[in-house]
Design goal:
Length: about 425
């Protein structure tokens, strides 16, 4: 289904939205709940991803299809690897079969798992024969995806000897790894996370160089310390409303629940990211109040989003709406998401107004050579990516927006269009 978002003339202010639980937190707790059945969870995400993961974990079928849900593929691979005596096939959509999983599979196999590829080497679908895993020491590249690391850590307390994980190269999306570690600590797992620096001498010039690795040590968990967990609302979903508020007139207000100042989610960095773009954030007992203030906008937004890559599309679209130049880096993981998000941003972003957009494998630049008007009725191709739909939707403040395959948003935010209507966005099916 495609929808038209008509250009908004009178956006409604002072709205209150309850955003469902963080998808990232929910998916971690779902794995732990499947491992420790006495655990109860409040405010779970209502996203398709979390629903799909929950269904997969409860299913007794031999062939499990996780569709587009990348998290379910990664976390599920680790979970089923330790289900002793069970044999399953884990598969997904055509796009999922193009998303690499070799680093995780190789890591699990080194620890004693039995996982093989059914089609292309290094990619789903997978044949998984569940085994009891002793654990031990393991080195893994941290630059590809923090979800590989999280998948290992979530099952590590079930290993007979625990796990010592040596992470080399630049750690991507550190806040997501820190979230995993904090959640495991809440559960009662004895876990440590530290940086270890080693001095090495180069043979050619005998110079010393420093190499810093991250080391996580996980001890086996014998008894959980927690019976009930509460999931904070999803900060990545809040990003679309930060963008919406940024495009309003000064004085515009919105309240979002339930958020906390000491959030585990890396995307809570939205508070500081959007402050230069005119959005102030005030925390209260229920969540956050967003207010658009009258201030001079920066000439260029320069951000390293290594730790918040999921916000790239949202920030990019905001800058288009405000006519602010942008240089966003740290985006290397976006090439292997639901689509190649860097090229998708370039293709769709260029349709809204005259600008120069340049990309690399890890960055995107947006430059306005002069003030330009918005084109009429802009088509947003979503490429089966929920964030493409939601990131560009706030640009309905500037022009009519047609969103292709619009219901892709249910992957993470099922009530998104319902909430848009509440702020006076006219939405029609086409």
């Amino acid at each position: 289904m495609d929808v038209r978002l008509s250009k908004v003339s009178s956006p409604k202010s002072n709205m209150e939205f309850l955003i469902s639980g963080s998808k990232s937190e929910s998916n971690r707790w779902l794995i732990l709940q499947a491992l420790y059945e006495n655990l109860k969870i409040q405010n779970l995400s209502d996203s398709d991803d979390s629903d799909h993961l929950s269904q997969v974990l409860q299913s007794q079928q031999a062939v499990l299809d996780i569709g587009h849900a990348g998290t379910a593929m990664r976390f599920g691979t680790a979970f089923f690897a330790i289900q002793e005596g069970r044999e399953i096939t884990l598969t997904g959509s055509d796009r999922m079969k193009q998303r690499p999983i070799g680093i995780l599979v190789e890591a699990l196999n080194k620890l004693g798992a039995d996982i093989s590829y059914l089609e292309k080497e290094g990619f789903p679908p997978l044949k998984i024969k569940g085994k009891k895993i002793k654990g031990g020491k393991l080195s893994i590249d941290g630059s590809v995806s923090s979800q590989f690391l999280t998948a290992l850590l979530l099952v590590a307390p079930s290993f007979e000897n625990g796990l010592e994980l040596n992470i080399y190269d630049q750690l991507t999306s550190r806040p997501y790894l820190e979230m995993t570690i904090d959640i495991l600590k809440q559960l009662g797992v004895n876990i440590s996370f530290e940086s270890i620096t080693t001095l090495l001498k180069r043979s050619a010039n005998n110079k010393e160089i420093e190499i810093t690795n991250e080391v996580v040590q996980v001890q086996p968990l014998l008894k959980t310390a927690l019976e009930e967990a509460r999931v904070e609302s999803d900060w990545s979903s809040a990003g679309y409303w930060y963008s919406w508020v940024a495009m309003q007139e000064p004085g515009y207000k919105m309240h979002l629940s339930f958020y906390k100042k000491d959030s585990l989610q890396g995307d809570s960095e939205l508070v500081s990211i959007y402050k230069p773009l005119g959005v102030t954030t005030t925390f209260d007992t229920k969540g956050v109040q967003l207010i658009k203030v009258d201030q001079q906008l920066p000439d260029t937004v320069m951000l390293d989003l290594t730790n918040e890559p999921d916000q790239a599309q949202t920030i990019f679209a905001t800058c288009i709406g405000l006519g602010v130049n942008a240089h966003l880096t740290g985006l290397h993981t976006l090439k292997i998401k639901e689509t190649d998000r860097i090229e998708a941003m370039k293709a769709v972003g260029s349709r809204f107004r005259e600008s120069v957009i340049k990309t690399t494998d890890h960055s995107i630049q947006l430059h306005f050579t002069s003030p330009t008007s918005f084109h009429k009725e802009v088509v947003v191709d979503t490429y089966q990516d929920h964030r493409m739909a939601m990131a560009f939707a706030p640009l309905s403040m500037k022009t009519d927006v047609i969103i292709k395959d619009a219901m892709v948003v249910t992957k993470s935010y099922k009530s998104f269009y319902k909430d848009l209507k509440k702020v006076n966005v006219s939405i029609t099916e086409i």
